[in-house]
Amino acid sequence: MTTQTDYFDRPLRADAERNRAKILDAAAIVFADLGLEATLDQVAAAAGVGVGTVYRRFPDKDALIGALFENGVDEIANLASSADTMENSWDALVWFLEQALSRQCVNRGLREIVAGSPYAEARLDQAKCRIAPAVELLIERAQRDGYLRDDLVTTDFMILEMMISLLGNKTSHVAPDLWRRYLTIILDGLVVSRSAPSVLRQLPADSIMSDALGSVHRHARRHN
Amino acid sequence: MTTQTDYFDRPLRADAERNRAKILDAAAIVFADLGLEATLDQVAAAAGVGVGTVYRRFPDKDALIGALFENGVDEIANLASSADTMENSWDALVWFLEQALSRQCVNRGLREIVAGSPYAEARLDQAKCRIAPAVELLIERAQRDGYLRDDLVTTDFMILEMMISLLGNKTSHVAPDLWRRYLTIILDGLVVSRSAPSVLRQLPADSIMSDALGSVHRHARRHN
DNA sequence: CTTAACCGGAGTTTGTAACTCCACTTAATT
DNA sequence: AATTAAGTGGAGTTACAAACTCCGGTTAAG
Hints:
Two copies of one chain form a homodimer.
Chain A: H1 14-34, H2 40-47, H3 51-57, H4 61-83, H5 89-106, H6 108-114, H7 122-144, H8 154-171, H9 178-190, H10 206-220
Chain A binds a DNA duplex through helix 1, helix 2 and helix 3.
């Protein structure tokens, strides 16, 4: 893969290529932690280069974000498709939610793109449109098989996913797995019937949370 | 009630008092719609006064917010206490959640304060500390009576409330009652056991949502 | 009629983030 | 090793937004 940004096919100079990689790596981390509002100055600092270098390689912030999350988004789309090959439809649905959420909860930038941020481009929107139909199949199968309550629609899952991933981002720095607790609770609410709650005890809860809740809230506004 | 802001007890001039009321009324609406980031210029415009007038009456933004939400927060605290007088403990818990959420979902400013915004002061934090113990009683009662799964703690409810009210704010302008749909689902996940899901059909869903979801996301960033 | 309180809103201050510019450095080619 | 186009850092520019001030003109109250 001979990466280049310019109009014509001249390979980048060795140091330039090296820096491009450093920038991409740093941006991945910075946007994952701080979300898409992170400054390109922050990215540059994290990469150990000057801002100028970032702008030489990527025309603007959107371009960098586009290059960075191209994969991430249709990785999620693929998760939905491959979940659909599992034999048990409830397991498939749960597996998909866990996989998708574990990615979005750990990566604030990805969550913001999937949730539809101002930085997302047409190219990414396209991939996002591939997610909905695939999820719809998962839902319909689980409903036909009598696992999932049948008064739910695709958008319900978009919203529930949004709620959980938002929480996931807010708590990822103090209790990275806390979101699973609420996914479990919500899944218990989505099922047609059950005689007992799913196990929750092994998931993080009170101890971490009570101290953390304050810092979560404080963390909510200005980042880093 | 002879309102005044100055150090010594001189009643405000008639027009000043009138404006103070206009400002408070306007601020209530503006902060409810736009959240606490709303500009005092916006408040002034909504009140039909100049910014100067706002600043003459309230030393700064925090003071205005303080004066405005003093009640709101401990109204919620009172809800918890009065829920505790209901005979059925499950109904009490559900009633409290519905009441508290219906207030926070319709009022973005209130939600931000309860969630712990930078504008909240010690005075408000104090009231918030009154909420937690009262809710704890509700929870323990519902658990003792075998309604509520017993692996839940107070902070779980704080978090679930945060998740729902956040959604409520995001969707209040297109589907004011949508949050009830997810409260219902979550309650179905909190109950010890059930043979069927609670009724969901009469709550808003697909029709409104699919169009709205986009505008919700777009609305997420810069307001108004 | 006097005057202290009040009013509006243009303007100031402060802060932030995207992005540019250019003197200097360096990889690649001859 | 000389040449040079490509690349680099980071101070500086531009743009914008929001909190808050200032003051010439207005008005309620005694």
